[in-house]
Design brief:
single chain, five-stranded parallel sheet, globular
Length: 171
């Protein structure tokens, strides 16, 4: 109820500007499958109030247990976002075939040097290869990269920059 109350003035502004269908509610960032009931309840309330507003979440559920994403009509998620290393052809095909969008995702994970990422410590080609990876998996309809401007500096008088990621070994 509180979320709907908080979103109502924003949704009104977006509706007045004819932009509500371009808006989305993002939540449940990397939450485990046991949160499915919460996703259904919270995003269900959003979809009941504003059916044209999209709902988006990073849910690595197939990566957790190898299972499928719920594709029933009552599952109120429009854009399933999955860390790319967990991509599963059958799960993503079922999802896209149900009429929903499917985004790949990377952030500070996967951080293992054997995975592609856009860390400045990695070879620059990796940034381009990430998108070739996406292009080779036709189910992807978009890509999310979290926090391109996040830098943990610690306290201002004594900044602590990120630790360097271990470099790849050439084999």
């Amino acid at each position: 109820d509180k979320m709907i109350e908080d979103l109502t003035p924003i949704a009104k502004e977006l509706t007045d500007a004819n932009l509500l269908s371009s808006a989305y509610v993002y939540g449940f960032d990397e939450q485990p499958r046991k949160c499915e009931e919460g996703v259904r309840k919270l995003f269900g309330a959003v979809k009941a109030k504003w059916p044209e507003m999209k709902t988006v979440a990073v849910l690595n559920w197939p990566g957790e247990d190898g299972g499928e994403m719920p594709v029933d009509d009552d599952f109120p998620l429009d854009v399933w976002t999955l860390q790319y290393q967990y991509h599963n052809d059958s799960a993503s095909k079922l999802w896209v075939d149900s009429g929903r969008e499917y985004f790949g995702y990377h952030c500070i994970e996967p951080s293992d040097p054997s995975y592609l990422n856009s860390f400045i410590e990695h070879d620059l080609i990796e940034t381009k290869l990430l998108f070739w990876y996406m292009a080779a998996r036709t189910q992807f309809t978009g890509w999310l990269y979290y926090a391109v401007d996040l830098y943990d500096t610690g306290c201002a008088p004594n900044p602590n920059p990120h630790k360097k990621v271990a470099a790849r070994t050439n084999q």
